[in-house]
Design a protein that fits this description.
Keywords: Transcription, Transcription regulation, Transcription termination, Transit peptide. It holds the Pfam family mTERF. By secondary structure, the protein is mainly alpha-helical. Among the domains are: 261-325; 328-384, no CATH class. Helices cover 64% and strands 0% of the residues. Helix 7 (101-110) packs parallel to helix 9. The radius of gyration is 27 Å and the shape is elongated. The two termini are 26 Å apart.
Length: 397
């Protein structure tokens, strides 16, 4: 079974056969040998003070910061306010940067100790820097609402070196911001430490730097959340399965292999229950590993439409797994409605592969199947915009 194959592949002992010691050493030296980057491995996360409870603290957290009574009580056991003077200035600082009460509640709920920091010298300087760096007001609010601990780190010794290190990997400040927007925790020191060995694992197996950069931007958590040993084992397994490292499919397969064992088992059992064999599962994975990330609800709906309504055999979807990832409402159903009209009028062959039409860009589809047929164009456009019902005739995959 494919599950056993995956487990066997993941047991492959890493022997460094195709690795490039020079490239790995170079990258590690850059990270560990750069004085400005050494400090990012030491976060200034605060530790709780002795548990205490203060009516002033709880009252301030609920009325001024928007926390629930439960969260305020919990926070008051970690720190206490003797006066609200500095806290008021902190909230003013946040409001001046566009934070509303709901945002303030998220930030202070996670890091109530921010209320004790110097609003101008510590908080305002860092937020102003991030704005100058290129973060919009909404992006800054989103970042700090998810990870307010960035405000507790040194600007000169941690934040700036972290951003510059990431920029060295993805090329531009815009790409840095794009990666952080997808995962606010990307520039946490503990996360950045995993980037170096995980990137090296891909480079050692021949994955181009351009692909590595692309996936750091698109899927930063893939590189920053996964233990390096587990990451490398997955890369070795994918390489052993014959994926081409010069194709983005290689990295997509690695991402899929990083899914938990329980996640794999659930996917496997789901597709088996819908009519796939082990061979179908393996074939689909080799062809388009991204389909592994489709939800169970989405998968069931896709099979219901293609198998139940259009009459396809379940294995047909394994031969074109990209269809599982397409939007039914916005793409698949409208196009199938057009194809059904054309089929009923004899304008397309009965044995035409509909999967080909479904994979076309919108412009290509309209040119080939709508505007090409002038006399039927109006009817076809009505079908395309959902003004006709699908007849559910059996068609070829």
């Amino acid at each position: 079974m494919f599950r056993l194959l995956r487990e066997n592949l993941l047991r492959v002992r890493i022997n460094g056969g195709s690795s490039s010691p020079a490239s790995k050493t170079s990258l590690l030296c850059f990270f560990h040998g750069n004085p400005s980057l050494k400090s990012i491995t030491h976060s200034s996360e605060s530790t709780p003070t002795a548990p205490t409870s203060s009516s002033l603290t709880i009252s301030y957290l609920t009325t001024s910061c928007g926390l629930s009574s439960e969260l305020a009580l919990r926070a008051s056991k970690w720190f206490t306010l003797k006066t609200t003077k500095n806290a008021d200035l902190v909230l003013d600082c946040l409001r001046n940067h566009g934070f509303e009460l709901t945002h303030i509640a998220k930030v202070i709920g996670q890091r109530p100790d921010l209320l004790k920091l110097h609003p101008e010298r510590i908080l305002n300087s860092k937020m102003d820097f991030l704005m100058r760096y290129g973060f919009s007001s909404s992006q800054l609010i989103n970042l700090l609402s998810k990870d307010p601990s960035i405000l507790t780190r040194s600007l000169e010794n941690q934040i700036i070196p972290s951003l510059e290190f990431l920029k060295g990997l993805v090329g531009t400040q815009e790409n840095v911001i794009a990666a952080i927007n997808r995962s606010a925790y990307t520039v946490r020191p503990s996360r950045l430490k995993r980037l170096v060995p995980n990137i090296s694992s891909l480079r050692d197996h021949g994955v181009p730097n351009s692909y590595v950069s692309k996936f750091i931007i698109k899927q930063p958590d893939m590189f920053t959340m996964v233990d390096p040993d587990r990451f490398r084992t997955s890369v070795v397994a994918v390489h052993g399965m014959g994926f081409n490292p010069l194709s983005t499919r290689f990295v997509e397969a690695v991402r899929a292999m990083l899914m938990s064992k329980s996640g794999w088992d659930e996917k496997y059992e789901l597709y088996r229950s819908l009519g796939w064999s082990d061979g179908d599962f393996m074939s689909a994975f080799r062809m388009f590993p991204q389909w592994m990330f489709s939800s169970e609800k989405k998968v069931n709906r896709v099979f219901e439409f293609f198998v139940g309504e259009l009459g396809w055999e379940p294995p047909s979807l394994s031969r074109c797994p990209v269809l599982i990832t397409l939007s039914l409402e916005k793409r698949v159903i409208p196009r199938c409605s057009v194809l059904e009209v054309l089929l009923s009028k004899g304008l397309i062959e009965k044995d035409m592969k509909w999967s080909t039409a479904l994979k076309l860009t919108e412009k290509q589809f309209l040119e080939r199947f709508v505007t090409k047929y002038e006399e039927e164009a109006a009817e076809l456009m009505r079908a395309y915009h959902g003004m006709t019902e699908s007849k559910g005739n059996p068609v070829h995959a």
